[in-house]
Structure formats: C-alpha cells, structure tokens
Amino acid sequence: MDSIVDSNDRSVIGLSSATASQPNSSDEFFFWLAPNLIVNPFDIVEAEQVAPDGKSRTFGIVTTLEHSTDSPTHLSNFISNNFGQVSSEPNTVRQGTTVARVAVLSNDRNIYVPVMNDRPVRFADEAGIHTALGIDQVAERYRIPAGLIEMSNGTWAVVYLDGRYILGPEGAHVNITGISGLATKTSYAIFLIQSILQKAEKRDRIGVIILNVKHGDLLSIDQSPRGGLTPEEHQLWQRLGLTPQPFGNVRYLLPYGKDTDTTGRPNSFRTPERNWFLYAYSLADTYDKLDLLLSNIPDPWDTVGALIGEIHQGLSDPKTGKWGPSKKWGNVTDWSSLLDREPLVKDGQAQPLGDVRAVSVGRFRRLLRRIVQTRQTGIFVSQRPNKAKKLAEEIARIRAGETIVVDIARLADDEQTLVFGDILRTIYALYAEEGSEAQDLPEKVIIFVDELNKYAPARGGESPIIQQVLDIAERGRSLGVVLLGAEQFMSAVHERVVGNCSTVIIGRSGSAELSSPAYRFLDQAVKANVSRLQKGELVISHATFRQPVKLRFPRPAYLQEGIT
Predict the structure, then answer these.
(1) Which three-class secondary structure state does DSSP give residue 290?
(2) Among the four given CATH numbers 1.20.140, 3.40.50, 2.40.10, 1.10.3470, the one describing domain 144-148+157-280+390-503
(3) What are phi and psi of 244, to 5 degrees?
(4) What's the pLDDT score for residue 88?
(5) pTM above 0.85?
(6) CA dihedral defined by 408, 409, 415, 419, rounded to 10 degrees?
C-alpha cells in the first residue's frame, strides 16, 4: 500500500457540461475530464457554483463515466481505421472525451440551482469531503471513525459516523452484508466496535456481547496478532485517530460438550488462553425458554405454543415465577422425565394436556427429543454441573467496559437459536422491564451476531425469536440496546429489522442479490460498482450521509484464526 498522503493539488480536472439531451439538475451534473486524467466512481468532486455574494461549491460523488466521440457509429470507427487494420494509424482521428455523471451531495451555501455550464471542477479535499457528507455538522464528541475514503488523486479522508445514529437516541443498529470471505463482514464489525469503544461519547459506559458463529474466529480478541500489524496497517489506524490494540476485559462463555465431563474441554474450535467459562442448559434453565428452542418448528395452529404454555405454568412456582414444579408435575426433574413421565406420558402413551390432544403431545415429544437428546451437541444436560454456568445469569452480569464472547460455532441450529434468543431476552428484560432494579448496568449494550438471517428470516412468519429480534430493532435505540448484525444476503433478513438500521454497510455482492428490493435505496450505477468491490472495500449508507460512499478500513488488531 502506498503511504497515506493528503493531496494539496487543487487544480481543475474538468469543466461542467450541460447539453440539450443531458441537462444538469439540482440532483446531478456532468463534467468532461481533462485528457489523461484518472477519475473513478465514488470519487468526490466539487464544482464552482453561483452565490449572491460570490462563489459557492457544489459537492457530488461520481457515479458513472462514459467516453464518447464524434463518430456516429462503431462502423465509422472501423472504416476510419483503414477498414479494420488495427496496426495502422487511423485515416480519421476521432475527437472524444470522457464525461462523468455526478450525484449532488450538498452545497456549502445551501444553493441547489443546477451547476451551470463550463464551471471548474476539482477533486474535493478532506475538509470538502466532510462538508459534502455533512460530517462538518456533527460535533466532535459524536464522531466515530468508520474508515477511510481513498481518492484517485491520492487524497485520503476519514469518514465519521454520527454516534447518535449508531448508539441512539436519534437512531441505532448496523447491518453488514456481502459475499462470504470477500466482504470481510466480521472484521469490519469488530473494527467498528473497537472504534466505538475508543471514540464514542460515554464509551466507558458501554458493554459488548459478541456471538462467535464461525470456527474460533472471535475466541482470541484479547490477544495481539502474532508478529503485530504491518507498518501500513499501523498507518491506517493512526490516520483514523485510533490505537491498534486487542480488546481488554473479555469474558468467554463456551458451550458444554458431550465429552466435557471427561476431558474438561468445551465444545469449541478453540479454547481461549484465559477467562473462559462453560455454560449448559438443564430443564430448569430452559423450561421458560422452550418457545425459543422450538422457534424453528412450524406451528400454524399454535398447538406447540399452547403446550409450551402448559409446561411453563406447570413447572413454575406461582409465587416466585421461578422453577418450582407443581404437584401434578412433581415427577418432572429433567429432560428425560419431561419426555417420558406424567403428565405428558402414561403407560408409554402420550396423554392430552389442557386443550392439546394426545396426538399433538406425541408430536411435541418427538420434536423435543430430537433437539435435546438425539441430535444435541452436549449443551443439554440432566442437571447442570457446578462447573457450568447458567447463560442468562452470566449475561445479566455484564458491566460497563466489559466484552462477553459467547461461542455457538459448534452448536446445532436449534441450539444456536436458543442461545441467541436467551441473550436477547435477558438483555431486553434488564433494560425494558427490570432496568430500574438492576445495578451497575452499562448505559449502552452492543450485541453483534453474524448470520442474522437465521434468526430473523425475511419469510419466517412471527416466531418467538423473530419477535425478540424485532423488539430490539424497533425499541432498542430508546433502551440503549444496539444490534449489529451481519449476513451474506440482506434480502434474506426480515425487512423490519433492516429498515430499523440507521447504518447499512455493503461488501461485494452479486448482481442477482443487488436486484432484490432490499437494495432499492442504491442507485443503479452504485449497484454495478458494488459488484466490483475488492476485499477490504465497503460501501456505507449512513443516516446523515446524502449518498452511499466507498471506504476501506484497517485490519482489526487482535489475533485472527489462520492469520499469523
């Protein structure tokens, strides 16, 4: 990577151009480029504009470039080159130019009359880029570095997000989408969290919960990368005004496995060096979360839901609301007794329960047995051993300045849904229902999860897990709970979840995905450029930006799996 420079070159790169067929408007203008000049899509330029007391500047982002000549047809070009002689000089030298189409971002004097013809156009400098994006209107204390814009002339500019639209109260939530492996979604999410923890207002009052869903990627975020970062990466961090460092004060929660009793090892791809704890689910830990555990089960007639309600009521102490089976449910102490003893079973036969018929009880038993016994990974235990924690209690202990990483990478899909739903429900209860009673809670909590489409699918109906995600998406900004989600295909995520995100970040995506309605906020030219993004490049749409912009970001400063 070339060294980072701030170009002071303020030379004119072209003149604005308006024609009868392509007039300039308040939303866009055109300019032709000086010969041999390089301009690319996403470059930000400024054109001189009229003003009552002098000049103003209209800023815009280049969306497309087209080269045209005075040739009426391609056949004319063929003939002018001696009927297709590619090695000879053309008989007729064509006159041509490259014309850039520019989407208007702003004017520094709020003048939005169309840019007149033959006005000088220049590359914007960093201050101009901030004016163009509205960053200059954001107070320093609200600015969160999001990455760097790299211009074709060598100018670099720091892109800042408005923290009030990330952490609330004006808006909240971030969604990151793009092709797996090329979009670097997880790396950017962790970088953005590090940026928030270093620069956000009241950053010492923020807690973070991260779900590790792929291999051991996020099970060493408190360790420095082997060999450190390259000088170029250090330069990027410094340019952003950030310190490249791993996370501090990290607590890891790892799932119990089938062989944990004998080996003591968690069911994880990697075991952190320090500060890790096991978690597991007994029936006493899960009886009030069966709706989450069975979220993926179709239930059009609410028979499963009705049966879950009967079980919850039977296993709850009516005075405390906590675990305390009634006399009728006295035989139920663990998963096996729930599935094989009264009141669900008698003499080996499923029994009706409440308004639920025996045949539905039998179906419920088969579904639950498959999840907690037949196909489980070891997370469901008869009685939770002393060395394993109750996940909800550990999450409720989160404190400001702490990061909790919950590993779910090796869990089955239903188990992952339970864990994620348990986390959301616990946090939601702390802030929406019991926040006044809880002590020392962080003022803000950021929850990051990849593969968000598994928990809030676009066509998933209104299951308990979807409802839990929607509650966070729609009320989180007022509660102080921020959802940072990622997925390969944004079109696969519930539209109300994405619609409540004040910031959308798009990595390289295929043209078929970009044609879906989820991307209707992007101009067609921007979509074409998104399909050509390189690894480490992202397009970001933020609530205060007038147009999406392309940026790059440094490699996160923690030990990443497979990277030395």
Answers:
(1) helix
(2) 3.40.50
(3) -75, 110
(4) 75
(5) yes
(6) 20
